[in-house]
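Model the whole thing, not chain by chain.
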Amino acid sequence: MQNLLNDTIKKYRHLCDHMEIRIEESRASSIFLGTDSPVIKDSIETGCNIRVLVKGSYGFTYFNDLNLMDEFAGLAIEDAKKPGRGHTVLAPVPPVIDIVKSGINMKDIRKSDKIKILQNYNHIILNYDREKIKKSLITYLEEFRKKYFASSEGTYIEEELLDVNYKIGAIAAENGKTGNGAFVGGSTGDFSILYGLEEKVEKACRDAIVQLDGEIIKGGVYTVLCDQEFSGVFAHEAFGHNCEADCLTNEDTKKEMAQGRIIGKKILNVYDTPYPGARGYMKYDDEGVKTKKVYLIKEGVLAGKLHTRETAAMFNEEPAGSARAINYRFPPICRMRTTCIEAGKSTFSDMIKDIKKGVYVSGNEGGRSGETFIASPRYAYIIRNGEIAEPVKGVKITGNIFKTLQNIDMIGQDFQIVDTIFGCAKNGQYFLPVSKGAPHIRIQDVTIGGTI
Amino acid sequence: MKRLLEFKARETDEREIFHMKIMSDKLLFNTDKLHSTVRSQCEGVGVRVKKNKKIGFASSTIFTDEVIEKALENAEYGSAEDFSFASENQSFSGEDYIDEYIKNINTDCLIDKGNRIIREIKSFNKNISVNLTFNKKQQDINLVTSRGFSGGYRQYIYKVEIATEITRKNDIFVIERTCSNEKEDRLVKELLVDIDKGMNTETIESGKYTLLFSPYVAEHMIETFIRGIYGNVITRNISPMGSKLNEQIFNNRINIYDDGTHRGRTGHIPFDDEGVRSQKTMLVENGILKNFLLDLRTAGKLNMAPTGNGLRTFAEEIRGYENPPHPALRTVIMEPGHMESETILSNIESGLFIKDTTNLHGGRISGDLSGLILLGYKIKNGKITGRIKNANFTGNLYNLLSNNLLEISSDTIYSGSYKVPWLLFRDIDITC
């Protein structure tokens, strides 16, 4: 494969300023249990893309049939020459030659073993409480991908990655009311995360039954205490996307989100990093840049951004390996890896004891970023006089990046890395594997939509 | 495809081969300038096999026998199914499904068009930055089964996405709009109106409001209902609609249908992805639930006729060979009412006009809706006075469309795979 990529680049190098070729071989499996019929699917996918830069303009092509390499290299260059364009410059990076093996032989892990484990969990759920637990929902996804990347600067990288993620849940129903309980997990490279989950499965069933009693929350302003999983998604939606440099190309937005702006209290530190073993980990990004940690917020002040080589050049900053594409059909754009709120000094009891009326949120069911962002917890409970009380439903935490981050007044000691199912969606590229890390955090004056 | 039909044929009761080839051209304009072009050609097969009544699925871009082997392996773990793959051969004119306008779109025209749109928006306010994407696709679909079905067609799809951004102190005002298979002029006109009306911001208090929902928000609402009538949630008994066939579920002014024969939309194809002929399916008639959306498998389980809604979509949007068929909508249409949306708005003494929200669906089981208002306006004496920010909406789909509905507009627009009117409601909870 190295010869194919390098020979193609050599052939067309003189027609463009920069050229990259990325080939991907992917084998993915998914298992859905708990439906009326199990659904198991496999996909085998091979694809290639070519990206060229000609006088500051990009041409990008992708295809499955490697025999079309020459044709699509020519098309990419022809398209890049079309008039009326902007001027793209790439931040310089050193060429790299590396072969990164995952150490995993997919043939060692049998599908029948995975199905047996999941069927066991399914059996636990369906027999936990036959009166109240009506359904189980089990989703397991895995993808083994081998990437081959070469550039006209002399870089050649092969990297193997295995992404695994799951969600296991139960639905309870009684007297017209319903309750959902679930938990999620994932990793880069580690199948063993699927083993030994029996206690978590039983907890999900208990949670589903507890949720039966939840009423729609009364809308209003609350003090919110967030568990690690929710705090992680909060970091992702509130900070992470707003620090992706390709979202900051409007000149006025650049000024509003300029480095040095105070966005939170001094206790707030947020970074994005390649975290070995967590979803979203890779040694090199999809432009061949070695991945490293970037502080986004340091002591409450906007500190850094997530870059492609193009945006790094625009901002005159260094790329840190944040250029990622969901697969060969897309060019890399600015994405997160593992986005973290750094641990603070508060204990959980410090954080809850003086909350007279608040909400405790845990787990994550997705979110959306923007100046106003939103995130949905899996569970929510009223806090009353320092104690967690009754469950509530319909809770969505919204915030404004110019106000809400200033209201994070306590950060816990209990940092955890959290992997979830599916991933991040941006510009039609979903679901990109990402993960989060955070401790408990407390936020004052949060508006929660609900009944009036 | 013939080889895939024949490989290990004796080991299967039936098999189905779905082949898809997509050629596409995309242009991306970032921050007012043409940034990149994307050209592609991809193809693959999705294979379903039935062995001892159990179904297995696999897909591949590589046309080797391994995809059959994988599908056979997966069939071991399936449950027994009562349906069979398509067998009826159909004749149809492939030309009926080709949109000549889209077919003739070329990249150079799109570059000019993109630059023109950007100039038009920036002439309104030079501080607005514009991101624009044009995407034209040609999809060739072929389906064969061991039971004798053989069919294919070509389809063109054209999608335009425009995002504008204007930033002032502590205010990042972003609007995103998309249209499919229609000319983008409407979108641009609408954007300019929204930008103009949104430059002034207003504050509101939490409370109950009269709300006018744009079709973009109406789409999110109806989507919650649609997700509750897919065959796979009915057979899993996780939808309240399962027991409500022929019962009143909404106000009697509400009529909704799904239509695979509605011309010009992406759902307009001769047969679904399992070979079932396209049809129009009445879903709600005078507020009464009439049908579910069914693929072959769920139709078999419910002992009902399939409705031609077996599609190979991912996340409700993208169709691909990588997915087995499952119930999905074609074009969902809510019938209009009797009053123009502009008249409805001008009659509102005090209320809000909600143009766009995040996805509202809290749960297909309960019908609870909640979400962030992405673009909304305050209305006073029939006029928009300014844009509201940081507000949330909460409600229940079945309550709203039964008890709170005031008006359905006579005008409709396409929003994704929906054709929907404006909807006016009373007494909706807004928190801010």
